[in-house]
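User: two proteins, same treatment. go.

Assistant:
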Amino acid sequence: MRRVWQPEIFYHVTMRGNNRQNIFLNEGDFALFFRALHYTNEKYSFTIIAYCIMNNHYHLLIRSPEVPLSNVMAILNKRYSEFFKRKYNYFGQLYETRFFASMVVDPISLLNVSSYIHQNPLRTTNTLADKMEAYPYSSYQYYANQTKTKPSFINTQLLPSFFKQYPEIVAEDYCTYCENFRMEEESPLLV
């Protein structure tokens, strides 16, 4: 079935290892995934406003304005899968299924989904970090430290801009919003 693509919309994309197996085994694997992201971005420009790469899955809050998101994800997942299979002499299917993508259309939803993504390392069975900014494979580090050099495909301006545009958002800034966000408020589809 063809996926709907709207170039102006952000999508919450998730991808998981087959049988929930780990697809990132060490620091080098995370680096290979970021290399695949850069490679894909050179071919098809996209913007990510939140990401979190966990051991057995990843989350992207991504917009692809020029080509269908399926094209972007096909290159990214194929590229990383090839790296992984070569590195570990791995045979078989790396990913559980095609990527899951849901449209995120309004500012409050973008804030909520991005907060959910950024809280992932804190909400696992074995907590991976004591603070969101301490987890190295998440975009939250660039929100917490705006002087930190970020990849060219990361936009850290959009989410904070909502606090000036929408006074009904009760938080002083994006980081405060993320820290106070509770997943229970989020859609059960994202859990």
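Protein 2:
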Amino acid sequence: MAEHTPRRNIETWAHELPASFIECRTMGHRWEPHSAVWDKQARAYHVIHECDRCHTQRKAWWNRNGEITSAGYSYPEGYLTKDVGYIGADGRGVLRTEYLARIFATTARGNGSTPQAS
């Protein structure tokens, strides 16, 4: 019988994530050009963009016409949810709640007031 690794509680996992991971998982990555190198053998550009917040890398091969022939991501240690499982709508809500809790905590410490809805 195979042993199953117990799944972590998503609230605990979200609370332990670095702020940059929470921001990217909530707001999306902020891609910055990192490198683009022509590979003679592949006859394509190897293009890498990196998130300036969490350092995830988006890697792709572009042909001469700009068509993407293959692509993938490299994630920093701890970004993926190996012990939490799939993050569905409820889980994304947990991440957004954690994001707001951190914003409110930072704002309250910074100036003694809380953010106001506009």
